[in-house]
Amino acid sequence: METILNFAFLENLLVSMIRMATPLLLAGLGELYSEKAGMVNIGLDGIMTIGAGVGFIVGYLSGNPLLGLFAGSLAGVALNLIYAFSTISLRSGQTINGMALNILAPALSTFLSRTMFGVKTTLMKGATIGNLSVPVLSEIPFIGPILFKAHPVSYFALFLVLVTLWFFRRTKPGLNYLAVGEYPRAAESMGVNVTKTKYLSCIICGFLAGMGGAYLTTCYIGAYAEGVVAGRGFIALSAVIFGNWTGAGVLLATLLFGLADAVQLRFQVLFRDIPYQLLSMLPYLMTIFVLLMSNKQSNEPKANGQPYAREGK
Questions:
Q1: What are the sequence ranges of the domains in the chain?
Q2: Segment 239-285, tens digit of pLDDT
Q3: Of 42, 135, 170, 249, which one's alpha carbon is 20 to 30 angstroms from that of 116?
Q4: Given CA atoms 190, 193, 199, 203 in this order, what sign does their dihedral have?
């Protein structure tokens, strides 16, 4: 107990919380943009997986993890465009196509990994992108290491939250974007290109979710293995629901899930008599709990998940 009740433990826990929350926040924001345009994408786990696989391969072969991070993001876009074409142009079911991504991506990532590196008994380790320390501010006791010695991608994700809040609340394109998810026919009657907006939402979702997956292998772990995403895509999806479809809500939800993940890792070390499988369930149990406690008065877009066809088609 003395190990837990001290500032050093709390500081390390909060640092780990931000690190764990970063891929969830990226994928959650991607899903938020998708659903704000009426596109429910449950294939986040698959998009993160292809981002993780491609990101590691490119980063390892090039020796440049930043290039790997970008490549993983583009891989997420490429995969999600399959979903976009099927659901927007062909108007097939969004749920079944999202599940298809979750089935396709792990197999494709494993195929690419084994093609490039063969079947290995040990993990291939690549370079990773290090943390960014803000001069002077990072030296502030307790607060400095938590807020000002974080990863650049974490800062980018937090910046995206601010951009998202400003875009949807303060800009005309943002209001037009919201109209597509609420009343697409009315939006089109006002001159908004609904199809183009929906495709754009899928590109944004694919890029951010792919980056979230690539973050795991180019910034956090530095290696790729089957199951590296470990259901984080589904946690990010639940973060959008728990966050009530707002950028600030998604941020708070992902921090909560990140905290649960950080706690279970530390408890595995401190309480070795408890089977680690039970402790590793904590983030997923937290996901179930928060979904049960979600506010029924939600801000979910009214046309969310509904296929759209222009009049006369």
A1: 7-120+148-292
A2: 999 999 999 999 999 999 999 999 888 888 777 788 878 888 888 88
A3: 42
A4: negative
Q: Which two tokens stand for residue 177?
A: 């974007």
Q: Give the count of beta carbons closer than 10 Å to the beta carbon of residue 81.
A: 15
**Paired tokens of 167:** 């875009």
Rounded Cα–Cα distance for residues 136 and 278 (Å)? 41
- DSSP letter for 138, please: G
C-beta neighbour count of 292 within 10 angstroms: 7
Q: 């837990």: which residue's tokens?
A: 4
Closest CA to 264 of 91, 99, 20, 88: 20
Fill in the DSSP letter of residue 178: H
Please report the pLDDT score of residue 295 as a whole number.
Answer: 65
pLDDT at 154 over 60: yes
* 32 touches 245 (CB < 8 A): yes
Burial 84-108 (b: 16+ CB within 10 A, else e): bebbbeeeeebeebbebbbebbbeb
**CB 50, CB 210: distance < 8 Å:** yes
Helices of type H across the chain: 7-36, 44-62, 65-84, 94-117, 143-147, 152-170, 172-182, 184-189, 194-215, 232-242, 247-270, 276-280, 282-292
Global pTM exceeds 0.85: yes
The matching CATH number, chosen from 2.30.30, 3.30.310, 1.10.8, 1.10.3470, for 7-120+148-292 is 1.10.3470
Q: What pLDDT digit, counting tens, does each position of 46-55 carry?
A: 999 999 999 9
Lowest-pLDDT choice from 13-22, 241-250, 283-292: 283-292
Percent of the chain's residues with pLDDT above 70 = 96
Q: Which helix (H) or strand (E) holds 281?
A: none
For residues 156 and 134, give the distance between their C-alpha atoms in angstroms, rounded to a whole number. Answer: 14
CB-based contact 286:256 (threshold 8 Å)? yes
